[in-house]
Write a structure and sequence with these properties.
hydrolase; transmembrane helix; thiol protease; transmembrane; 9-stranded mixed sheet; 9 helices; Peptidase_C1A_C
Length: about 400
């Protein structure tokens, strides 16, 4: 056979070096796999987590659970439940620096002058309501009265944006559009369009003047658009809701407001201008002047009920505190527990009905925090809750 000379020491050294390189490479690869697997697992299971989630600290959870227990031990007309998604970080809240009455409304002057113009619609409408010959029932629910309106049964999820004022407004507008058309118009008015294109209304930081959405709806109009992921209508909602129900105050900042694009999504098949809907009137159910507090309260409540039973749901705004985030069921009343002043802010919902239970009168409202909150997304709130901070607004086609 052929004799093969022994390898030189250099060749032997190079061979050993090559084997060492392969071994080191294998170790590095194994180490990378060990490091990467948890990140890959997190990515696969949380790929939609586009917003940061703020879990409660141990101290916060202990404090909130104590608050929940205190509420439930009071035997109130409602039950609280610890909501682990109701995050309360140290929020960077954007201040409203402008006086809302100085806001310029396109083609109409300042908000103050528009406010005066709304008085005409308001006075006319309230007089018509007062003249109606009707007997109010002890219980009323728009979901039963106008059950064929798809929108009246829906619960919005405002997601990572302080857009409760938009969600409640467009939900109410959608209901009234359906009701006034005798069920022929089942379109959903777009959160995205009102939120992004009405610059003087506000944005993800909230609104500064409750009637502004309705003034915009009357003056400019709003297109259709469904919830996130629905691809329904001209401009569907694009704000994610993976940050909680409700999402923390961190998202109540102008920078989270979507960009205004006055064009429809490509699959809709209609142009923006032809899809606009408008209301003919915008009005308050306002507190009438009287020297007797009880008279003002009863008159306002009666007018609201007359409007609701005749024309459909109303736009309901009030001030809430931290306990409301942990509402589970029952008739919400102020619990008078220590919340350490952690959270108190204006919040808007859709008013859809009323009732009475064990001597407590209540409103039925649709919230915008998804289905996992409250009574499947809805709540019952005492009629007398924060009456003097309550605002009711509406509009007619």
């Amino acid at each position: 056979g052929t004799h093969r000379p022994a390898r030189s020491r250099v060749e032997q050294f190079l061979g050993q070096l090559d084997r060492h390189k392969k071994f080191v490479s294998f170790l590095l690869l194994a180490l990378l796999v060990v490091i990467a697997v948890p990140f890959l697992f997190h990515f696969l299971h949380a790929e939609k987590q586009t917003f940061p989630f703020f879990p409660h600290s141990e101290d916060d959870e202990t404090r909130i659970r104590s608050m929940v227990d205190e509420i439930n031990n009071k035997n109130l007309s409602w039950t609280a439940e610890y909501n682990h998604q109701a995050s309360l970080p140290e929020a960077v809240m954007e201040a409203h620096t402008a006086d809302y009455r100085a806001i310029d409304i396109e083609g109409m002057g300042t908000a103050e002058s528009v406010d005066h113009r709304m008085n005409v619609d308001t006075d006319n409408h309230l007089n018509e309501l007062a003249d109606l010959n009707l007997t109010l029932p002890s219980h009323f629910d728009a979901r039963s009265r106008w059950s064929q309106c798809w929108s009246v049964h829906q619960i919005q999820n405002q997601g990572g944006c302080g857009s409760c004022w938009v969600a409640a407004a467009v939900s109410m507008m959608s209901d009234r559009l359906c009701i006034s058309s005798n069920y022929t118009q089942q379109s959903i008015i777009s959160i995205q369009d009102l939120l992004s294109c009405c610059e003087y209304c506000g944005g993800c930081r909230g609104t500064v003047f409750v009637p502004l959405p309705f003034l915009y709806f009357k003056l400019r109009g709003i297109v259709t658009g469904g919830s996130i992921g629905s691809n329904e209508g001209c401009r569907p909602y694009t704000v994610e809701s993976t940050c909680g129900t409700p999402c923390p105050p961190f998202f109540s900042q102008k920078k989270f407001t979507p960009k205004c694009e006055r064009k429809c999504q490509p699959l809709y098949g209609k142009d923006y201008e032809s899809d606009l809907r408008k209301t003919q009137t915008a009005y308050y159910i306002r507190k009438e002047l009287s020297s007797v507090t009880e008279v003002i309260e009863r008159r306002t409540i009666e007018l609201a009920k007359r409007d609701l039973v005749t024309n459909g749901p109303l736009y309901y705004c009030t001030t809430i505190d931290e306990s409301f985030l942990h509402y589970r069921s029952g008739i919400y009343v102020f619990p008078h527990v220590n919340t350490d002043g952690r959270l108190s802010y204006g919040h808007c919902m859709k008013l859809i009905g009323w009732g009475e239970e064990k001597g407590v009168e209540y409103w039925i409202v649709a919230n915008s925090w998804g289905r996992s909150w409250g009574e499947n997304g809805f709540a019952r709130i005492s009629v007398n809750f924060n009456f003097w901070q309550m605002s009711l607004t509406g509009g007619l086609w």
